[in-house]
Amino acid sequence: MTTVDASVRRVRLAILDDHELLLDSMSSWIDANAPDFELVLSAATWLDLVHSNKFPTDLVLIDFQLREPVSIEARVRTCRAAGAKVIVLSSLDPLQARDRALAAGAAEYLPKTLPMREVMNVARAVMGVPRGGQDPKDWRPLPSGALPPKPKLSHGELTAFKLYVTGASTTEVARQMDVKYETAKTFIRRVREKYAKANRPASKKAELIRRAAEDGYLQ
Question: Which residue of 60, 94, 104, 214 lies most exposed, with the fewest beta carbons within 10 A?
Fold first, then answer.
């Protein structure tokens, strides 16, 4: 098993999943195969997670579907407000479920069918940790909340961006801003281009929503 230099702070990880066999399986895999992560909390209920003295962690893996009556939006926003990044795992494929998770501020939405090795590689990308094959002592996790610089957006671009990622169509953006459709379309295109230049992809709406969540534009 690969080891990590003791001087390097490992990413503190929590998992929330009410399927206990799956929770145990994921926990065992991470303990055995992801030495750059420290699994400090495995919770089967939402209250177990948030009431633990080990919460918040750097990153939380959350099951989209819980038997508890707490929405995915509430769970993601609570974790984000506490300073934890979130990856949502789900057996649901509908685009609406993905959009809900990302719009609430989740960094990623992944299918539960994805192999754990790939899940943890996504987790490394979210936390700024290199993938396997690189010397662990050559990286340091990003400080909590640290992100690449925000692109500098004009007032019009920022207004259109916020409206668009919170559910407005381009036509609705134009109407609410009292501008022509082509103007609204141009604002959104420029936002995408500026994020791309910052090496933060935003060509798809889901990616644009993710950038908005990362930069604090989704409240």
Answer: 94
Residue pair 62/13 in contact (Cβ under 8 Å)? The answer is: no
- According to DSSP, the β-strands at 85-90 and 11-16 are unpaired
From the first residue on, what is the mean pLDDT of each consecutive set of 10 residues in the chain (219 residues)?
Answer: 54 93 89 93 92 92 90 91 92 80 92 87 84 43 54 94 85 94 95 89 78 70
- 75 and 105 in contact (C-beta within 8 Å)? no
Does residue 144 lie within any of the structural domains? no
Q: Are residues 16 and 105 in the same domain?
A: yes
Are residues 62 and 86 in contact, defined by beta-carbon separation less than 8 angstroms? yes
In a domain, 54, yes or no: yes
- Please tell me whether residue 218 adopts helix, strand or coil conformation: coil
